[in-house]
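Working notes for the structural subgroup meeting. M.R. asked for a predicted model of this chain before we commit to crystallization trials. I am recording the input and output together here so anyone reviewing the notebook later can reproduce the run.

Input as submitted:
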Amino acid sequence: MGSSPALFSDIGKKAKDLLTKDYNFNQKFSLSVVGATGLGLTATGLKRDQIFIGDINTLYKSGNTLVDVKVDTYSNVTTKVTVTDVLPRTKAAFSFRIPDNKSGKLDVQYLHPHAAIDSSIGLNPNPLLELSAAIGSKELSLGGEVGFDTASASFTKYNAGISLNKPDFSAALLLADKGQTLKASYIHYVDSVNGTTVAAELTHRFSSYQNNFTIGSSHSVDPFTVVKTRFSDEGKVAMLCQREWRPKSLVTFSAEYDSKAISAAPKLGLALALKP
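Returned structure, recorded in token form:
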């Protein structure tokens, strides 16, 4: 819904994406093929150190139903069936993983002009229950989430947050880790012409009185090339260069240097995503 508040899980997501999305310090390759009948196939391979893992993902869309099946290197088969508009403004998803017979889960999402609700329940004798809600508008929203484990009769999480969104900036404040961590994030769109954007995230842990921060930027060198930078108070400096060398096909180079580990070599990563 255009005027609905964002889901609670999206509070602070814009700044987090700028600081973390597409950074990869391994070797990654993916090939995606989309057919005219609504069937899509994606093969992904990832080399981490000396270990190679991969998966094949199949998507099929028909009407308001989307079927997603993924098979990974360890022969796990994950299936998710999503149906939109089951009821007005409502989306439901059923997922399970083979051979785990206790992995079944049902997710229901409801978007109202002034509220966004997301719920999840495990389909097993002792399910994990999760509920999140946000109220307000597209510009200003306030929300919270809670998780409850029926097996141990204990809360797994309870968090709260508030988000302010304007055309040129977005700010968020999150009370996370069961009230033990306070996170503040901010993203500012400096120049819409060349895509220059800056973001920052500050984290305070009440138990240890520890503060951490990360700042980053994104800039479009040309319509096909994006350069991102990131710096943290831990002394880590990272950069990313992403090039769309053909329509919807991306090559991404990432590097990170830890100034506090002088003897360690910088981390390098290369990702290639092909969409013929």
